[in-house]
Write a structure and sequence with these properties.
about 375 residues; mainly alpha; two-stranded parallel sheet; 14 helices; about 60% helix; about 5% strand
Length: about 375
């Protein structure tokens, strides 16, 4: 991956699809006198999710509950930080939470509560994933990870046939790896391959900021409980790992249900380094909505079950996606454009499992892989 040779989206069949869709979405907000940013519902959700993470931690360190209760508190924190990541941090780092850069900066840095770094996340997610969705070696999110294969265009290893068995254990280490090592690995990688465009001086400052932030995170959420509670070091470490395991499974599964499922495409660039498609249509062919009728999932997942709408309009706060989806779906039907939906969470989850199985097998010579 090297952004000096960026992939371009080129379509010979130019349509008015996205221009029409964008105009209709813009008109929806104008006609209803709505801001595209957060509303009162979003503010209440932010407070609720931050409380879901911070209050259990404060109870843990201030009241010395039993070990069993402590594990319950760590578990609640795991669900809380996953919710913060999907609902608060995600919108803010896309600039969708508020018109205020300061508010977006503050809310975006809630990623630090999981031990992550904003700088690397924006490069991986906003630039690579959102621009080059499901394009192997460009979309970092679908690159092979240790023993996992997420693309039909990489080499199949013998152990990939078992990935459907061990995948969810692997998913559980995502945020722990992120907190401890991933940002260092990514920082070096993105600096070397040109994704990180900053000067050496700027990168030194950024690296120091990342390091200090991580040390502060580990000091508060791992080391501090060891000194001011009656729990043993092993008990604190177990709770810390449990929290991250829950957060990792939730975050990874939800992401995978939008892209690594049946019917999504994994296009390859042509000999000129171009994707023969319009960018917006590419997003629709590589992304799937799911569980759109579930109010609970829509609330907790930060609208990531409306991933199609998010990829088309990342700067719109997710609380508006259910209404935006109606406009997207009807416009897709009008123009004959792909619009992928799995009606329930179970449908999406099953589709992901089947896709892991498919990607874990050697390709059939008589079967074209999507």
């Amino acid at each position: 991956m090297n952004l000096k040779g960026q992939i371009k989206f080129v379509s010979k069949d130019k349509t008015l699809f996205f221009a029409t869709l964008k105009k209709r979405v813009d008109n929806y907000f104008i006609e209803n006198n709505l801001s595209k940013n957060a509303n009162a519902e979003m503010v209440i959700k932010t407070i609720a999710l931050l409380s879901m993470y911070l209050i259990p931690f404060l109870y843990l360190v201030l009241f010395n509950p039993t070990f069993g209760i402590s594990l319950l508190l760590w578990s609640i924190m795991g669900f809380g930080i996953a919710g913060i990541g999907m609902s608060v941090m995600h919108d803010a780092n896309h600039g969708a939470y508020s018109k205020s850069k300061t508010v977006n900066l503050l809310m975006g840095h809630t990623i630090n509560l999981a031990g992550g770094a904003v700088f690397n996340w924006k490069l991986q997610h906003n630039i690579l994933h959102h621009t080059y969705t499901n394009i192997v070696h460009m979309d970092d999110d679908i690159d092979d990870k240790l023993v996992m294969r997420f693309s039909p265009h990489t080499n199949v290893k013998w152990y990939h046939k078992f990935q459907v068995v061990y995948a969810f254990l692997f998913y559980g280490i995502l945020t722990l790896y992120w907190a401890l090592l991933k940002d260092l690995v990514q920082f070096i990688k993105y600096t070397q391959n040109g994704v990180n465009p900053n000067s050496t001086k700027q990168n030194v400052i950024i690296f120091l900021q990342i390091t200090i932030t991580k040390l502060f995170y580990l000091g508060v959420f791992l080391i501090l409980p060891m000194y001011i509670t009656d729990f043993t070091v092993g008990q604190i470490v177990l709770g810390f790992i449990l929290q991250h395991f829950i957060a990792g499974v939730v975050l990874t599964v939800i992401f995978q249900l939008a892209h690594t499922v049946e019917n999504t495409t994994h296009p390859l660039p042509n000999e000129k380094g171009s994707i023969e498609n319009e960018w917006a249509i590419h997003q629709l062919e590589t992304t799937v909505d799911f569980s759109r009728d579930s109010k609970f999932l829509t609330w907790y997942l930060g609208g990531l079950n409306f991933q199609v709408e998010h990829h088309l309009f990342p700067k719109i706060c997710h609380v508006h996606y259910p209404e935006v989806a109606k406009i997207v779906e009807s416009t897709c039907k009008e123009f004959g454009v792909t619009y992928l939906v799995n009606e329930t969470f179970g449908d999406a989850f099953s589709s992901h499992v089947r896709t892991l199985q498919r990607f874990g097998k050697l390709p059939d010579i008589n079967e074209a892989l999507a």
